[in-house]
Amino acid sequence: MSLARIALLAAALGLSACNTGPRAYVYAGGSQASVQKTISVPRGATASLGFGASINPDCTRSDVPDRVTLTQAPSQGRVEIRHEAGYAYFRPANPRSRCNTTRVPGTKMFYHASPNASGTDTFSYDWYSGTGGVAHFTVTVNIL
Fold first, then answer.
1. Helix, strand or coil for residue 7?
2. How many CA atoms lie within 13 A of 129 on its CB side?
3. Phi, psi dihedrals of residue 53, rounded to the nearest 5°
4. CA-CA distance, 57 to 32, in Å (whole number)?
5. Are strands 46-52 and 32-41 parallel, antiparallel or unpaired?
6. Distance CA 114, CA 143 (A)
7. pLDDT (tens place) for every residue of the chain, 144 residues total
């Protein structure tokens, strides 16, 4: 995995929607990272959990796409994984930075809180890079 790909995943896998904690780093060659996140979402609402993309410098999908697997489902909502285009972020020194203003193929994730949810919820998922790395996410949801 190139340094540029690691930087992409580091930037793209950070959760949004009032989150706290470090950004995720996915490493090459079977390396692993564990990430704990906390988000807040109103009951009955949807929170974007982030976007990740495995792309070539010409902004096309790489030959080996990433894969996301839900490992523990939430009890007071649901997680949705969509394979669709979105905006990735690459640092200016990355040859893929020209893709920052273009929608690129990738994976988007969402948490949907149930209308009657309250308190906290927890779920986990694994984000596998196309080169063998994996990030294990555990997300705590504060339901407002």
1. helix
2. 26
3. -140, 140
4. 25
5. unpaired
6. 10
7. 443 444 344 444 443 333 333 444 444 556 788 889 999 999 999 999 988 888 889 999 888 878 899 999 999 999 999 999 999 888 899 888 999 999 999 899 999 999 999 999 999 999 887 667 888 999 999 999
Helix or strand run (H / E) with residue 51: strand 46-52
Structure tokens at 41: 């979402």
- Edge-to-edge order in the sheet of strand 119-128: 32-41, 134-143, 119-128, 67-72
For β-strands 32-41 and 134-143, DSSP reports them as: parallel
Asked if 137 contacts 125 with a C-beta cutoff of 8 angstroms, the reply is: yes
Topology of the domain comprising 3-143: Immunoglobulin-like (2.60.40)
Order across the sheet with 104-113: list the strands. Answer: 46-52, 104-113, 77-86
Question: 49-60 burial, b if ≥16 CB within 10 A, otherwise e?
Answer: bbbbbbbeeebe
Contact status, residue 106 vs residue 55, Cβ threshold 8 Å:
yes
> What is the torsional sign of CA 118, 75, 72, 17?
negative
What is d(CA 25, CA 34) in angstroms, rounded to the nearest whole number? 9
The answer to whether the beta carbons of residues 26 and 139 sit under 8 Å apart is no
